[in-house]
Amino acid sequence: MKDPCIALDVSKGKSHCQGFIAQDEPLGRAVMITHDLTGLESLMAMKNRLLKHHERVIFVFESTGIYHKSIQSYLDERHESYIILSPLEAAKIRKSRLRSAKTDVKDCRSIAEAYFLRDYRIHGKLDERDEKARALNRHYGFIVRQIRHLKIQFRSVLDVVFPRFDLLYENPYRTIPFTLLKHYRHPGLIKSKRIGTIAKTLMKETTHREAFCLAEAGKILDYAQRTQSGCLPEQQEVIILRNLALELEKKMKEAQSVLDDLEACVKENEVYKRLMTMPGVATNLASRITAEIGNINRFEHKKQLVAYAGTDPKIYQSGQKTGEHLPITKKGNKHLRSLFYLAARAAVDSKKPNTIKRFYASKTTQANPLERNAAIIASSNKMMHVLFSLCKNHQDYRNQA
Question: Alpha-carbon distance 35 to 41, whole Å?
Answer without folding.
Answer: 10
